[in-house]
Design brief:
mainly beta; Porin; 3 helices; 15 strands; about 45% strand
């Protein structure tokens, strides 16, 4: 049986070694020119499964660091629909049911400072409910002869999140609203197209309502972006890429503590096409290793999701994102997630 780590140790690690790691790494590498934000940035999303949402997986990000003094803000709305029913695997009632809809509104801000540094924060507002998309999703599947799973065997627009492998299981059958786990981050530009990022997720949510994990999670990642300020590649072409990979180190939390993995790896790859002066079409693959030590595939196996959509430059400084994601590794992430976001940047030196 796994021995739980001391919560105090986790906090010391996060609060001391987190800034120390980035300060040392940044001091040994030269900084390059700033890369401006634009419509070619990756879609800011990750696995929005009800049981993965509280885990400290960072949203997909580029290697871009705002110029010193530049302020960026965003509001990203995501609606995730999940319908998963797995029978009990034990004598007690340990069936896994994830049937409902999760709405996440993320309010984020980041600011460039110094020579190639960035500080950021994200406040997530969460709502778990029965939702309204079940009928539309079933109609879509029927119209295009797509598999519908066993959705028709269960009530539409119902909320039921339940998994009780032990005394530390989860159960949610009523609408829940609340602030999720706040994320604060720091990043350092490395040359022109690389960056290191770190994120600390604070336990401001509530594990009982699946709005938080009850512990702090530390994420460290490396990023590469081929695109420059204009949204094209270094050679002036229309195609560009963003690549990232990292690891999440998890403190003991209140969400399924007996089966929690201490760490998980994650990565993201985005391919974009500058379709016009203002329009960018993008395809993105997000993946991560298992977050739980469980015999159930949905919890104890890696996950991957495909995100597709477009971003448009509305006006100088304003960008609109529209996207949706599918669980290409079935049942490891929500059946579908719809995303709409608005980003705004105040240039350096603006009043």
């Amino acid at each position: 049986m796994r021995r739980p780590a001391s919560p105090a140790i986790g906090r010391v690690f996060a609060l001391v070694f987190f800034p120390l790691f980035f300060s040392l790494a940044a001091s040994m590498l030269p900084a390059g020119p700033a890369l401006a934000a634009g419509p070619d940035a990756p879609f800011p999303t990750a696995n929005r499964s009800p049981l993965l949402l509280p885990v400290g997986l960072p949203d997909a990000r580029s290697a871009r660091i705002p110029p010193a003094g530049s302020l960026e803000a965003r509001a990203t709305l995501e609606v995730a629909n999940t319908s998963l029913h797995e029978p009990s695997l034990c004598r007690d009632d340990c069936a896994l049911v994830l049937d409902g809809e999760t709405t996440r509104l993320a309010l984020g801000v980041r600011r460039g400072f110094g020579s190639g540094w960035e500080a950021s924060a994200v406040l997530p507002l969460l709502r778990h409910s029965g939702g309204f998309l079940d009928s539309a999703i079933e109609g879509w599947h029927q119209a295009f002869s797509l598999p519908n799973g066993d959705r028709e065997n269960y009530p539409r627009d119902r909320l039921l999140y339940r998994y009780r492998p032990d005394a530390g299981g989860v159960g949610l059958a009523r609408t829940a609203n609340g602030i999720g786990d706040v994320q604060v981050g720091i990043a350092r530009r490395l040359g022109e197209r690389f960056a290191l990022r770190g994120q600390l997720e604070l336990p401001t949510g509530d594990a009982a309502d699946l709005t938080g994990s009850g512990g702090m999670d530390l994420a460290l990642s490396a990023h590469f972006s081929s695109s420059g300020n204009g949204g094209g590649t270094a050679t002036g072409g229309r195609l560009y890429t963003h690549l990232s990979a990292g690891v999440v180190l998890r403190e003991d939390g209140d969400l399924l503590p007996a089966v929690q993995e201490r760490w998980l790896a994650f990565g993201s790859a985005t391919v974009g096409w500058r379709a016009g002066e203002r329009w960018h079409l993008k395809m993105q693959l997000d993946a991560h290793s298992a977050a739980w030590d469980s015999p159930r595939e949905v919890l104890g196996e890696p996950s991957a999701q495909l995100v597709m959509g477009a971003s448009v430059q509305l006006d100088k400084g304003w960008v609109l994102d529209l996207a949706f994601s599918e669980d290409i590794v079935v049942e490891r992430s929500p059946d579908i997630v719809f995303q709409a976001g608005l980003r705004w940047r105040l240039p350096t030196g603006a009043p």
